[in-house]
């Protein structure tokens, strides 16, 4: 098992911060993961499990061990006339899995196209977009407890999914390493195209079908979001706040043009991007960092020379502006290390 020392993380975090980990390992199966974690050399060192580095912000060099699971398996578990169950390794690129699913004609995750990251990270954050959350299709999450090195398998309900949240982000944060995720996909499905912009793109493509929904969403995301390969960013930096109906009513009374999405009878989602834009931050720069000029949820390493603390300073300024204008505290979506 190869363990590298003083390892550069510049290509392993989507902000492209020039930082280093004392130790780095990319095990390719569960046995190699256990081998690394069993090494007494790392017993008392800080440990961080890294996916694609697309939803993480490092404030400085990491003085410990980083494990990046590189399990690349795609395995059929079961199927019937209507559905298929698959198990996907934690190291598989998320959008590669979405593309594979669409090419096979399986419905369920097409609206999650082009979300950066690896499969192993998707349950942690309960990734979502265009009216779909990954919790809608996950049946089981498999992994290893870091303290005992014993395996676990959590069914969907045991994962305690909620909006951009799960047990892996709360009660089990820093206590597990996910090795694979099982999904239920469908051979026939109802396409969700009611989110803004999708139907307009589908009209250009001429037909509403599974492949074209993916194409439409890829085009929308590419037109709004900077490519992390060229402009360092972590996608959506803030969560969209879900507020109670009274708070939503006050905001809509003061700002009748405000976009909103009804979550249930008691809660409404107000887009953070709109509030950030209304607070005057869209396209604004602060030294090496900036708010993207096409999507206010995205903070960017504008010059390529920024560090994590500069991004956090910008984020704090934005949070204060939004709170002053709307009375709402927007939360960071990224994982700060």
From TrEMBL:
Keyword ATP-binding recorded: no
Record-annotated FAD-binding PCMH-type domain positions: 17-188
EC number, UniProt record: 1.3.1.98
GO cellular component, as recorded: cytosol
A GO term, aspect molecular function: FAD binding
Swiss-Prot/TrEMBL catalytic activity: UDP-N-acetyl-alpha-D-muramate + NADP(+) = UDP-N-acetyl-3-O-(1-carboxyvinyl)-alpha-D-glucosamine + NADPH + H(+)
UniProt-listed InterPro entries: FAD-bd_PCMH (IPR016166), FAD-bd_PCMH-like_sf (IPR036318), FAD-bd_PCMH_sub1 (IPR016167), FAD-bd_PCMH_sub2 (IPR016169), MurB (IPR003170), MurB_C (IPR011601), MurB_C_sf (IPR036635), Oxid_FAD_bind_N (IPR006094)
EC class of the enzyme, as a word: oxidoreductase
Residue ranges the record marks as coiled coil: none
Keywords: Cell cycle, Cell division, Cell shape, Cell wall biogenesis/degradation, Cytoplasm, FAD, Flavoprotein, NADP, Oxidoreductase, Peptidoglycan synthesis
Catalytic residues (UniProt): 164, 236 (proton donor), 333
Function: Cell wall formation.
Protein name in UniProt: UDP-N-acetylenolpyruvoylglucosamine reductase
Provenance organism: Saccharicrinis fermentans DSM 9555 = JCM 21142
Gene: murB
């Amino acid at each position: 098992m190869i363990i590298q020392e003083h390892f550069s993380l510049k290509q392993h975090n989507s902000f492209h911060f020039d930082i280093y980990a004392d130790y780095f390992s990319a095990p390719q199966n569960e046995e190699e993961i256990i081998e690394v974690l069993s090494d007494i050399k790392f017993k008392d060192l800080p440990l961080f499990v890294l996916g694609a580095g697309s939803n993480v912000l490092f404030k400085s060099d990491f003085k410990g061990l980083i494990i990046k699971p590189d399990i690349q398996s795609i395995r059929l578990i079961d199927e019937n006339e209507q559905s298929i169950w698959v198990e996907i390794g934690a190291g598989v690129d998320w959008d590669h899995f979405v593309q594979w699913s669409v090419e096979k004609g399986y419905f369920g995750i097409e609206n999650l196209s082009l979300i950066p990251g690896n499969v192993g990270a998707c349950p942690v954050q309960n990734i979502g977009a265009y009216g779909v959350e990954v919790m809608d299709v996950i049946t089981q999450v498999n992994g290893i407890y870091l303290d005992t090195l014993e395996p676990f398998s959590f069914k969907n309900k045991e994962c305690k999914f909620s909006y951009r949240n799960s047990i892996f982000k709360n009660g089990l944060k820093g206590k597990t390493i996910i090795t694979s995720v099982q999904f239920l996909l469908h051979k026939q499905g109802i396409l969700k195209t009611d989110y803004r912009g999708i139907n307009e793109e589908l009209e250009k493509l001429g037909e509403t079908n599974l492949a074209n929904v993916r194409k439409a969403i890829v085009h929308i995301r590419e037109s709004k979001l900077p490519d992390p390969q060229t402009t360092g960013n972590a996608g959506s930096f803030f969560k969209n706040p879900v507020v109670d109906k009274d708070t939503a009513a006050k905001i809509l009374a003061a700002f009748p043009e405000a976009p909103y999405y009804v979550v249930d009878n008691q809660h409404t989602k107000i887009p953070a991007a709109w509030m950030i834009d209304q607070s005057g931050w869209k396209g604004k720069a602060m030294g090496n960092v900036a708010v993207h000029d096409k999507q206010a949820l995205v903070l960017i390493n504008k010059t390529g020379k920024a560090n994590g603390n500069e991004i956090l300073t910008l984020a704090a300024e934005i949070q204060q502006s939004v709170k002053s204008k709307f009375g709402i505290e927007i939360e960071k979506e990224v994982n700060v290390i």
